[in-house]
Design brief:
By secondary structure, the chain is α+β, with helices and mostly antiparallel strands. 23% of the residues lie in helices and 29% in strands.
């Protein structure tokens, strides 16, 4: 089975405020965080013809880096992507806080082992305040495995 995720993650209240007027849905997650699925409509609305997507991402709107920097003044924001089929795939993540990039983008390709600090998404979530719990990494603690595809987060 395939798993895909393209999403913005941050404090739910902050994401609700900054996405007003956009074709975006803030899905509540654990720990006060929220997830905004990067749908095709949202991607088209956020693309401003600016610079190309950062290395490693495949669904990061052109020029979105400037907007997400502005959003991060109200709290840290992560953008994450994962694409797996049969347990093989890749992921990429970045985090912005206080108006600047503080992590990534960091990519883990299918041929690479996960670093001791965790996968790129787990490292990004740690920067949002999510902590590992026993054998569960940050991805599992936050419940990001609930759905297999980005669109499945939508009602």
């Amino acid at each position: 089975m395939a798993d895909t995720l393209e999403a913005i993650i941050g404090l739910a209240a902050m994401l609700t405020a900054v996405t007003q007027g956009l074709p975006a849905l803030v899905v509540p997650l654990r720990c006060g965080l929220g997830l905004v699925p990067m749908t095709d409509d949202l991607f088209d609305r956020l693309t401003d013809g600016g610079a190309a997507q950062p290395v490693g991402f495949w669904k990061f709107p052109g020029g979105f880096d400037r907007l997400v920097c502005a959003w991060s003044a109200a709290g840290p924001v992560a953008y994450v992507e994962a694409d797996y089929f049969g347990g093989v795939g890749r992921q990429c993540a970045a985090v912005w806080s206080q108006g600047a990039a503080i992590f990534g983008p960091v990519t883990l390709d299918e041929a690479q082992p996960a670093p001791p600090a965790g996968t790129p998404i787990s490292q990004a979530l740690a920067r949002l305040g999510i902590a590992r719990h026993h054998h569960r990494d940050e991805f599992d603690v936050l419940g990001l495995g609930q759905h297999r595809h980005t669109e499945d987060w939508l009602p």
